[in-house]
Amino acid sequence: MAVRTRSLFALAMLSGGFSLVSAALFVALDAVDVAFTEAAVGAGISTVLMLGTLALTSRYERAPAHKPWLPLFVVTVTGAALIYGTLDMPDFGDPNAPAMRHVMPEYLERIPHEIGVPNIVTAILASYRGYDTMGETAVVFTAGIGVVALLAALARRRRRGEEEES
Amino acid sequence: MQQGVSWEYLVGHANYWLFVLLMMTGLYIVVARGNFVKKVIGLNMFQSAVIMLYISMGKVAGGTAPIFPIHGEIDPATVYTNPLPHVLMLTAIVVGIATTSLALALIVRIREEYGTIEEQGIWEAEQEIAARERRQYGEVFGEGSQ
Hints:
The complex is a heterodimer of chains A (about 170) and B (about 150).
Chain A: H1 8-28, H2 32-56, H3 69-86, H4 98-101, H5 104-114, H6 120-128, H7 130-151, H8 154-165
Chain B: H1 7-32, H2 36-58, H3 84-114, H4 119-141
Helix pairs in contact in B: 1-2, 2-3
């Protein structure tokens, strides 16, 4: 439905609902930090941004001009390749999977006396991977500057355009 | 894989296959539809599928959320779900919203410049500009008769 609908407003709402459902999925998978980030960012901010964009542009999509067979073929081939890639993966929830046996036990052992923060995700994010998080804030800051630079003069340009027309 | 396909194998891998399906739906929207807002939503779906894939890789059967008890001793028998994918995917979500907002700002700017947010419409506008420039400068370059 989300693929075929041409009403962009419905699409924005569906994508917000999708974020909320995926947040519930993250809770089920024990990833509570990811779940509330997804609920706040995906279902909240992202939907607001979408609606703002729709208000500034248009609310309906034009009918597609060409047949969808080539994209369908490309997507099917890519999907088949990806599924072939998952055939060697460990089973879901397997405690002996390589991802669980590498550095994870060491983190669990060291965090209580090295950091002392009960939430392991917070401890890793803010302490062991602190530089990474700092780089992330730099990325967000840059994106914010980009948005401001693109939209700052929008109202002024619009006003000038209206004056020229009248 | 050598011992044939068992029921456990199918159930243990169904999560990856569902996420691949979701990912490909997003990719299809990006490739096949011409509206830019829709492309951004498709890209978001693709990204969510990747995030779900990583989070599901970190799940341990019978595990609990990776938070130690505040008071009291840590029970060594408790199984915690792998927190490392969670950390990485938190970063991915935040960077994702940053790129999404930048993309939406670009869409607003494109609409201002071209009056449309469709690929097809922008192509038509470009053709029009090219034709006008040919009319204007065609004589100088010696192809004015077109």
